[in-house]
Amino acid sequence: MLLIKRIVLDVLKPHHPNSIDFTLSIAEKSPGSRVELTVTEVDEKTETVVIVIVGENLHYDTIADAVSSMGGSIHSIDKVEVENEPD
């Protein structure tokens, strides 16, 4: 069974919701995960952030939906870690 264990995303987000609420919302959609957000660039209306999500079985589509529901857009998937666990 193939399981996604880590995803690193480059995301453009609005200032609101703030980084704490943005991170909490992503974590809420991925039970059992750990989410880390780092702001790498700020301009007048947006922030570029790197989001690292680590968990036992991450679902990219759910994470992408959470990002877009808060007005964010995923620029790129910068890193993915997948594990092949025996069934």
From TrEMBL:
Q: Where is the signal peptide?
A: none
Check the record and name the InterPro entries matching this protein.
DUF211, MTH889-like_dom_sf
**Pfam families in UniProt:** DUF211
Mind telling me which PANTHER family this protein's record contains?
DUF211 DOMAIN-CONTAINING PROTEIN
What protein does this entry describe? Answer: DUF211 domain-containing protein
Organism, scientific name: Syntrophotalea acetylenivorans
Give the source lineage, highest ranks first: Bacteria, Pseudomonadati, Thermodesulfobacteriota, Desulfuromonadia, Desulfuromonadales
